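Sequence decides. Consider this:

===
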Amino acid sequence: MSVTKHHVMIKGVKDGLVFLLNDACEWQDLLQELQHKLEKTHQQILTGPIIHVHVKLGSRDVTEEQKEEIRSVIKQKGNLLIQSIEGEPRKEAAAEEPVASMTTVKGMIRSGQTLHQEGDLLYLGDVNPGGTITSTGNIYIMGSLRGMAHAGIDGDDKAIIAASHMRPTQLRIAGIISRSPDEWGIEEAFMEFAYVKEGKMEIDKVHQLHRLWPDSNLKS
């Protein structure tokens, strides 16, 4: 009976052997090939004194019963001593960790111009009246915001808009539009940020940002 030999790879390492098991093939095909290599094709490197073996399962989810099946097959070679049987972290589990992305852009946005950015945006420059700056994440402007800014443009109402000098023609976060700056009760707004609270846009000083994000990972 022929066996397609690509499900099991056996590699020599400093302290023994590593068995790399394909994590996408059928389980019975895997066991069959493992048995075949132990008995037929790899006898030369599997004979002799005690050999330590580490089994790598890839991203395959296996039960304790399946691990025991692996142990039973390998133990048939009396000199093979299993040190570990382990898998890798699942890719989707690793993807659950949020990855912060910040893009820095320098320049000046003039009337009639629009700048759009995916993720968080740090803009070093002024946004003049008639200019527009948009982002799917947060917008931080190290300069004057005198045009229109729209953060969380894809619907993220947790986004904020901050600016060194906040005097916009309009602010938007997700689908929420700010009141006119004339209604803020602030003559000149320096180092302010806009955020959404209970469905309404609020304005506060940048140094109060930690209250909005109490779980910040920033360390002194």
Summary: The two ends are 66 Å apart (CA to CA). The chain has four helices and 15 strands.
